[in-house]
Design goal:
Chain lengths: ~160, ~160
């Protein structure tokens, strides 16, 4: 599973870790890392674009920054469970939730999560890779409405 | 846009770059990096799961490994264009293509790409973050068929 550092470094980009940093910061998907307390510790350029908060506005803040109020209790219940047990039910799953932008707009995001561990093996944070799926979701709902109307039922 | 290394390192995970490496290798989305010649230089655990090739089978191979034959010419045309100009038309776009698994199965993937540059500023590779969307695509096509049938037209 590990990459070959020699092969990577001959790309002129330095060591494997530095290349991974370039991938994370330059990704077109939002990549966000929160520590065990749920405070934001990494916020890449695409997260700035998708959520409207600059990294310096997001860093150190709670993930509540982008979680609609009604969903926060459920979110933190799951989050604390993962931090306590070191296990996530969602390790290969695509999650779909509403999220908030800085301008107050509610968007739809799909994301995957992965658990990070400290040197002691204990869970130290959760990384998420997120895509804005607002437009696709709208199209899907439109389609479901048309289908329901044609089938003579409520959507 | 840059993260605060001090804040990150107090998570017990080391420096920012090491955390990014943990994010990339542990991500639930496939993350693949190809160099300027299109040879695979990074292939994370989720890429192994989604495409069926282990990292040691994929590393150093051409991206043709997962590109259906009919799409290769178009793929490499675009790839070389990006490497020559240092610009990608797809910097914030979600791309959707068929892809090949090791077992020969054809799957659907959605992915974003980002361009990596070497110390000299020249393009040195392209990173992609990919999700298997085969199941959703099938459901969408099913829905379109039902809709077409109800509307008395061909899907």
């Amino acid at each position: 599973m590990m990459t070959d550092a020699n092969r990577l470094s001959d790309m002129g980009l330095g060591a494997d870790d530095a290349i991974c940093a370039a991938i994370v910061h330059g990704a077109a998907d939002a990549i966000v890392l929160a520590d065990r307390d749920g405070a934001i510790r990494l916020w890449n350029g695409a997260a700035e674009r998708i959520f409207g908060f600059r990294a310096d506005e997001a860093m150190g803040r709670s993930l509540d920054l982008i979680i609609p109020e009604k969903l926060r209790a459920r979110h933190w219940e799951g989050y604390r469970e993962v931090m306590r047990t070191g296990r996530s039910r969602y390790s290969t799953e695509l999650l779909s939730v509403p999220a908030l932008r800085k301008d107050g707009e509610r968007i739809s995001v799909e994301f995957t999560v992965s658990l990070l561990s400290g040197a002691d093996g204990a869970p130290s944070g959760i990384a998420a890779i997120l895509r804005d799926t607002t437009e696709r979701r709208r199209r899907d709902q439109e389609l479901q409405k048309r289908l329901a109307a044609l089938e003579g039922r409520k959507p």
